[in-house]
């Protein structure tokens, strides 16, 4: 574990990455608020010793106004506290990017929470900082709990043979397309990358109102957005050991994926990451974007904003490497805390069947295997996403991923703008990634 200079460097790097967008153990930390208060003796039973009531702090990034947060606050936490009267849960909602930054800053002042819902891509970074608990080493029933959860989702918290969290929910992206637009253009749903590129070009141009339309919308150029194309083309970001990028991020297959996207942009067939572009949901719902690549949350968004819009979904078109989407989702992790027993109870509750099914009702794809067989899930719109998850891949589980992701975005943008060829940009990126992977 590095010293304060290293943490300061991480804070500065994180700030720069946020602007560009979109384990050694440690002594127990203090929680943001008081950790415990005493329950007074009742007049009926003064012979019993005082019972400790522990307060655990749970930080998350469920939007404050979301159905997920309402379920958490009004259903799940009350049920957990009913089952565990000795534990009180103090849940605090943060914006996604704010949570990442606050956790890093809090690590320097010993004000970390006991438990947090983390983007799976953050786990390696926090593990390297030495602020996460290796659950498989510290919790005697870890394996019993882990065996109940999806292996693919659990892999995102596995670093160096140890698990620094449990999968909490999972997701991936599939193709959404405008049924009417494809029908009018006489285009079949694309099943290959060649068909996809041809369809995107044919669907672009102007509509009957003289407005420009684009065959495809991509809101960013980070790994979450670009990886499905790289993998489906047969490319990769690093070797399997995640130690080297040269020969992988600049391979012919990876370069071909970037070239395809750049060619579509040059032909004004794709857009979305530029300032002033139409937001994805509005662009898709009004017919300005003919196809998008998105997750299960888009179903609820479209139902709320454009209930009469006709669209359908399909798997990501296959390339030389097959059809591979990107594995997303969140993990629930424990920080160095004196409240391990209470924190572990809450983590197990949140990954149990009851909590997982309640969150599934809000659009969260569960990771609990038994919940996946429930009527709630079987009667939902999850089916195509669950199928895509089988072949989805996780982004590299390396501590420097945030920095690598930022460099990837910059490199791909330089190709889109015509400043560099795809090969030049990926060759330069390979050198930067090699350095970051060894730091």
Polypeptide structure, described:
The protein is of the alpha+beta class. It has 2 domains: 53-171 and 328-389, Periplasmic binding protein-like II (D-Maltodextrin-Binding Protein, domain 2), CATH 3.40.190; 174-326 and 400-438, 3-Layer(aba) Sandwich (D-Maltodextrin-Binding Protein, domain 2). 43% of the residues lie in helices and 15% in strands. It has helices spanning 4-20, 67-83, 96-107, 123-128, 135-138, 142-146, 151-154, 179-185, 193-202, 223-232, 252-266, 280-285, 297-305, 340-350, 353-360, 369-372, 375-378, 383-389, 401-416, 422-438; strands at residues 36-39, 51-60, 87-93, 115-119, 158-159, 162-163, 166-171, 174-178, 205-206, 212-213, 216-217, 270-271, 291-294, 311-314, 328-334. Strands 1, 2, 3, 4, 7 and 15 form a 6-stranded mixed sheet that branches. A 3-stranded antiparallel sheet has the order 13-8-14. Helix 1 packs parallel to helix 19 and helix 19 (401-416) packs antiparallel against helix 20 (422-438). The longest helix has 17 residues, at 4-20. The chain is globular, with a radius of gyration of 23 Å. The chain starts with a helix and ends with a helix. The model is unreliable at 1-49 (pLDDT under 50).
